[in-house]
Model the fold of this input.
Amino acid sequence: MSGTGKPLGEGLLRIFQRVYALLTSKERKTSILMLGTAMVNSAVEVLGLAAVVPVIGLAVEPELIHRYDILVQVFEVSSVFGVQSERDFLILISVGLVVVFSIKAVVGLALTLLQTRFSFSVAHRLSGIMWSYHFSQNLEKLRSRDSGRILAEINNWPGSFANRFMVASLSLITEFLVITTICIGLLAYAPIVLLTVATLIGVGTVLIRKLTEARLMAYGQIQKERGPKTNSMVTNAIRGILEVITFRAVEP
Done:
């Protein structure tokens, strides 16, 4: 359950719906591409994790090379490169593992860059909308508004929306796909292990959520209230200094 008494899944669905509602038709089409990048990123993550297990198994028990036909074939092919022993073969696949993880890191960074650029392009558009909204008001109404709140709505809130909701949503989708793939694999080969891991993770997640949810909500509310006030203090200080200089109260 979430802090508002609604199920967590329902809360996440509402977040996705609100994010989608703020997108233009062109951005919604691009979001489908971003969803594709999340799926590719999750596949790369799973493949990277899957590459670790055989290497660890061979490092613990090198004799496994001769127990599986595919490893025997790879071992025979690697002899072309001068590999003559299990130790040499282990070094070769370790180097291959480093290459795989390097490729995974590059692909992950590239996909994350695409997702982040898209998210903050949306934030830039929303910032422009907020600018147009505030400065299209009449002078009296604009003067009556808190300058710190205007500054927060134009500069801070769109960026927070991109970082906390759009980028976080894409990361959440990626992690969900990775966990789902791992769970399917464990369910097929070791259901007891899946049940044990799920229980441990579930209990830990619930405890952490209960212990931190109220505090995080309080911090978020403090930031929401104090952010505009801080902006007001800064803008008022700048205006005050400019007025002092303008009226030659001090040397510029």
